[in-house]
């Protein structure tokens, strides 16, 4: 979320626990399956991934102000609504790639793969951070602007957030991981287990919409989660994700029938998020898709 005298942008994500592994084990991580966005007084855009058996024709469901739209005709590839334009590449007929372009200059690119959404957000120059001391005037410095609001690569990460908002409300310049009370978290990449726990408990958990009731919810209640809509087990406060998939305590004998850990190291070539995906799901195709996106 970005709120200033000139901007009122809100981006919310829906994260879900994916289906069990092929050996019927729980995947203690989340995937991004939905996104809702609005900038100033624009229409609300919602994009959802679809379940496996529903992906034979369309990969995503797209709604604008609650009305479902399609991009499967040449004249529907670019559609304009109040304050926002949606675009689908001409040769993409399954709605797996959606570009959201707000009139303020904010752009969101959504790519779907195997029921997971990859999100990239691009911001114009006038969305630089706002200082508490100079709230009415944006901070312009001579250095290159490197604020990257939100990028969710195609993978499973240890952020168990049902619906979350990224925020820079009245906060000073600082790290990307800023809590609602303007405390910034420092973390390294690749993350250690303690770093992952700190980000999960001190950042992600604090940004649950259910704990920030003053924020408006952009998701409509009729659009339920695609996996286990009646029982959001990962939303249970007692739920604990995997922070380090390499630990022996996270090992199960059944995974040895599907892959071995040396195969994970060779396939992922040292990319931590790829290794995480491979280890918790046992699916090389998911890990490889993420690896290619990271390399590109």
From TrEMBL:
Superkingdom classification of source: Eukaryota
Cellular-component GO terms for this entry: membrane
Record field: transmembrane: none
Record keyword Ribosomal protein present: no
Domain Mucin-4-like C8-3: residue ranges: 261-287
Chief location: membrane
Keyword terms of this UniProt record: Disulfide bond, Membrane
Subcellular location: Membrane
Pfam families to which the protein is assigned, alphabetical: C8-3_MUC4 (PF23263)
Identification of the protein by name: Galectin
